[in-house]
Amino acid sequence: MNASPAERPLPVVDADSARFWAALRDRKLTVQRCGTCGRHVFYPRALCPNCHAELVDWVECSGRGTVYSYTVARRPAGPAFAADAPYVVALVDLDEGVRMLTNVVSTPLENVRIGARVVVRFTDVAEGITLPLFELAPDPLPTDSSAREGTA
Ligand SMILES: [Zn+2]
Description:
binds zinc ion; 2 helices; five-stranded antiparallel sheet; CATH 2.40.50.840; 2 domains; mainly beta; 8 strands
C-alpha cells in the first residue's frame, strides 16, 4: 500500500454555498434566514423550503446546539478517514432551529450522548476549507425539558 495518506474529499463550493464557506474561513457559522417567514434554513439554497421566497439574508449563529442523534464510525468511510477512526458522526440541532450533519470531536466517544450540548469548533481541513465540527459544551445539559429526556 502507498504510504502517502489518501486525500480527504472536500465540500463542493457552489453559488448557493459560497457565503457559508467564506464565513467559516472567518470563524463564523452562518445560515440563511428567510426574510418572508423568518425561518432559519440549512443547507444553503436559493429558495425557502417553507414559503418558497428567495433567500438572501445570512445570519451568524451562536455556534451552540444539541446532539439530535449520532453514531460511532469504527470502520472509516474511506482511506482518507482511516486515521480518524473511530469517530463520531452526528446530527446536531443548532439553537437557531436547523439540523446539521457533522462530527463531534475532541472528546472521548463514550461521553457523546443524544441531547448533549455542543459548541462549534472550526476545523481547517484544506486551503480555504474550514468545517464546522462540534465538541461537547462546558454546560452539557440542554435548556428545554424535551431535549433533556434524551440524556438519560
Ligand atoms: Zn420562508
